């Protein structure tokens, strides 16, 4: 069944990114505490509303540029399937729902959702045209979603969760820019102004650096984060996932949409599932293999 223009405007296929709200319950030692999942699931729903509000707002601001993009010109606003007034009302409704719902749940979660919306409004209006600030803003959006899921548990995030999330999401944001630049080639500046301020060699350096930092932070987390020493067994899976994604970006120009990569490359989805399964099995089983 074809998706309606308004539903396409919400980009429900992008809601998988909001799974970062589950980081706290999965990696904070609460994977088996089933009573904690309902409030986190509510945060996930509110994060979906907030992210869709942002997508609609960003499409409103980018409508002129999108009309010149080979694929984005088919989006509901630039194609005329949804009017500006309808899109604006939809964005405001979703944003208000996310704020009111999170305020009812927890102040810390509300603050994260509020900062998420502010960060993305600034991104759409200004940050997306400034190199490095644009990818830092993308990473900050993921971190705020993760923090919203931690605070609803009544806990504070650890430095390890912050470090691993920051470098992983920065890696994904740089991969997105690299893929956009490789795909748009000669139309770089016209389609996305900030791409004219980058170069492929510079993005490749940033990509390699953030990929390595992601693995280093995760390796230190398994050794020094107060978890079972057996978590070191998950390192090869993380190594494979990061460098496989790097290969997809550099060789096949994937990465413009991380969600789309998971559908295009089932091997990546499989390795992520294997890593999560092994991590949770060690977390729950506490095997004594190292000291």
- CATH top level of the largest domain is Mainly Alpha
Radius of gyration: 19 Å
Relevant CATH superfamily of the largest domain: UbiA prenyltransferase
Number of helices: 13
In N-to-C order, the SSE pattern is HHHHHHHHHHHHH
The CATH topology of the largest domain turns out to be Tetracycline Repressor, domain 2
Proportion in β-strands: under 5%
Strand count, sense and closure of the main sheet? none
Q: How far do the termini sit from each other? A: 54 Å
- Indicate the mean pLDDT: 88
Number of strands: 0
- Estimate the helix proportion, in percent: 55-70%
The CATH architecture of the largest domain: Orthogonal Bundle
Enumerate the spans where pLDDT stays under 50 for 5 or more consecutive residues.
Answer: none
What number of domains?
Answer: 2
What is the global morphology?
globular
Provide an overview of this structure.
The chain is mainly α and 291 residues long. It folds into two domains: 150 residues, Tetracycline Repressor, domain 2 (Orthogonal Bundle), CATH 1.10.357.140; 133 residues. The longest helix has 26 residues. The mean pLDDT is 88.
């Amino acid at each position: 069944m074809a998706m309606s223009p308004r539903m396409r405007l919400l980009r429900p296929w992008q809601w998988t990114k909001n799974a970062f709200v589950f980081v706290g319950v999965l990696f904070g030692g609460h994977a088996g505490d089933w009573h904690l999942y309902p409030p986190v699931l509510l945060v996930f729903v509110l994060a979906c509303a907030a992210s869709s509000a942002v997508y609609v707002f960003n499409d409103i601001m980018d409508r002129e540029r999108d009309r010149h993009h080979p694929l984005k010109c088919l989006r509901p606003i630039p194609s005329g399937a949804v009017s500006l007034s309808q899109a604006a009302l939809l964005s405001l409704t979703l944003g208000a729902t996310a704020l009111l719902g999170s305020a009812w749940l927890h102040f810390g979660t509300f603050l994260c959702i509020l900062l998420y919306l502010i960060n993305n409004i600034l991104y759409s209006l200004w940050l997306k045209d400034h190199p490095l600030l644009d990818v830092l803003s993308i990473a900050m959006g993921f971190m705020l979603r993760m923090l919203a899921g931690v605070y609803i548990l009544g806990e504070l995030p650890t430095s390890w969760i912050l470090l691993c999330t920051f470098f992983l999401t920065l890696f994904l944001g740089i991969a997105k820019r690299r893929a956009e630049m490789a795909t748009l080639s000669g139309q770089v500046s016209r389609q996305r102004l900030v791409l004219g301020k980058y170069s492929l060699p510079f993005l490749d350096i940033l990509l390699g650096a953030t990929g390595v930092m992601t693995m280093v932070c995760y390796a230190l987390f398994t050794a020094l984060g107060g978890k079972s020493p057996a978590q070191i067994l998950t390192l090869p899976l993380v190594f494979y996932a990061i460098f496989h994604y790097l290969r997809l970006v550099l060789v096949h120009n994937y990465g413009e949409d991380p969600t789309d990569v998971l559908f295009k490359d089932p091997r990546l989805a499989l390795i992520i599932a294997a890593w999560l399964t092994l991590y949770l099995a060690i977390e729950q089983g506490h095997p004594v293999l190292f000291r």
